[in-house]
């Protein structure tokens, strides 16, 4: 980029931005890619810096692209990521530039003044609550005023208001007065922009008398004309046109109205209180009346003119001015469309952690007071969360039953008096029971199935209590997106359920769903779900859709975004400059190993919390201060310090969950966000990381072509000296030219036909194919991998592991490593574990963890001992002569894992190691052994990254990456038993009990053979099906049968566990072929493998168990 001068200019950026707006389709995507590369890799070279107005254009392009992307928003495009981070950096810089050159303002040498920032933040929060409290949090709508018959008003799906006029002079007014604050809203000009915007003064919220020009004051930015003003000292200007976004700032205290156009301050404003006396007289009111004058936003539209008004119900198109509040309070919880302040918060929290607390935590980090303190009717934390349940995945308030049985989930809040409300949104259509249960009921009992629980089930249109059901009147079954309101009135002893705002009851005469409730119990929200169903709770953290009048939310509103936005909008330039300096210091000074030492105390807290949650079956977000004290009672970390650290980690996890989709994580060209994320990724709780990873993998799965491979295993066995004839070689030759897209699916990657073998692939042959390739890779059959030196010398750890061969540098070998990486990525997506045995150094490299000298111990313990020995020789050996006597033949060379000799320095084979250079030799030897297969691992990672987003690899630890790709090499019988399904018999059947006993007594090798026998795999996960096998004669003479396609095992009714052991062990050790589906044709060993490509993937996710074959 530095070789082309034009690419270093702002003109290039502007030209590309214009090109992206003028083009569509693939041309536009290419332009956006170029823009992204310039912002990402050439930002430091751009002179002059792009104007903020131009960055507004890029930001709007990014937000439009954001709106069009996948609804789940788990991973954004590179352009959105690059623009988001660049925009934040530029806005922060602009914040400092405004005053940094002013001689009157000294900010460069200021120290952080926490008290000043805290005071500004608290003042804004107090003002915020006070202003909205006066309006009782009212949402903003509009009413027709002049010529209502010629005006059409509608509400768009994004909560903006559309007004269209069919004649000149029609008008609408907002139904909420301005009050004393500074308020902001946006107006999009639709036709020509011939619209007047201003205020309508009134003492009564009554538009029965049509306003006259004497009673209102408006301005038309298209024509530059005022309407309704007799005395206006402001010179008119034309400031907007069609399609512009006009930001309106109305200051209720100063009585001024000013305008921003497309994010830029026009500098134009007018006073709207100058004619107040005339307006009052014209309205027929006495100015000395007791009622105070109020001002309402007012709009006058000309003929065939329209506007879209956003009072704050949707994300604003442009950032609101720093000292303004959105007119609609709903905007406070929305934040900005792209979370710019969350990105700032991520930087600040990560910097605090990485700097070991040398910076100061931002004020918004601290939670506000609990409004329920001292309550005698409600018990529990202010932010309601959910108790964990077996087989249920809980991500904050999103619940999914991932198990195989009906499950119940309860909230950690209970009430014994008052009127309370919560809502549940259905994320799937199925059997779900939603309601309330006594806190004394068993946690696993179905809601509505016990004497003190009540629920509704609109899948079956029933209401439930004490295990008995009654019909409910409902027009249809519930569907995805329906909202169920759950209201509990303990005072009136009744329970009300709402279905998208409509009361559910058994007759029109009733005003409740259940009546006559007991008042002596405490009630908890609860839901019971059939396997596969999912719901989303709202206890008040966000706005309710159908809350009845007089009921209280169970939880407090989530003020996280509000606090964050308030903090960064009040930040002084000097504090912004100090923030940027802290980021610069981290970028320039911190290395990976120094950072690891600084975050170690946080890592200890994360590990202790995760162990407790795993042991107790809880979520990390449910830890209380009392629980934290118990966890750290016997650990070296003081409980109070651990609690503060835990609260910081929860805040960091919460911010990270929001910003990860917007971080441009590029490990080859890292920016400050990448560096901070890689430093702190281990501090994100494992359950949160796994949820994010699963979501990213799910939304990036694609529909692939149906590939069908014909593999000649006879050829592989007859030509053992030719690696391209192996099963792996044949597969590689067929698929090496396929696009990586073929591996980006959660279904089987391909179907397999083993030539000359009678198998029909509905899963089993595919797994056998994968297993055989892995067995070849983890052997000397291929020139790609070699055993570790620990294996050769029979010492140290990981003696069964393999590492890439340093000599495998040919074009075919390197391409094979790329293919292996793609195969590993496909295994991650479709949950088909690979039987690969690599030492930790391989997995650390693949997921961007720093590799250190101690990692050599897992590969070559003798070499590591040699390195350490040579480092200490200078201090232990008295003279060079003594050294020469022992090491006279030692040169600057080493033998790598594949047996090849490598020179450690140029001419190393002829350079002797001397006492003076023994440390140089140790350093060179360490560097050579750590990097001996960097090239091969780089190719594997390239293949992996072509299938898996880089964000996923960055989120995984080395052990987690190994588990996702390879599963568990050994397993406990309990793990296999937990997910087992029984068909035609029960878990208490004696043959089932015999099976578990036989597996308990088996060796690790026999357990792996058992998995291969029933599934074609060598590793978990496996969902085993156990079925009875009918026999015509003596059952003890029959062998068990397996259907690998369906993980099914058919067992005869053996007389004893000893008989079952003998038959089972014989079967798993002697039956490795799958050739009983049909009679195969004869195949010549020279027949070449074949690839057939279908037009679309017609494979089914599941196959009917009735189709089981041997």
TrEMBL record:
Domain HECT: from-to ranges: 739-1081
InterPro entries assigned to the protein according to its UniProt record, in alphabetical order: B30.2/SPRY, B30.2/SPRY_sf, ConA-like_dom_sf, HECT_dom, Hect_E3_ubiquitin_ligase, HECTD3, SPRY_dom
Organism listed in the record: Trypanosoma rangeli
A GO molecular function held by the record? ligase activity
What are the positions of the active site?
1045
Q: Where is the signal peptide?
A: none
Q: What sequence ranges are listed for the domain B30.2/SPRY? A: 120-316, 359-544
The name under which this protein is listed is Putative ubiquitin-protein ligase
Q: Which residues form a coiled coil?
A: none
Keywords assigned by UniProt, alphabetized: Ligase, Ubl conjugation pathway
One cellular component term (GO) for this entry is:
cytoplasm
Domain of life per record = Eukaryota
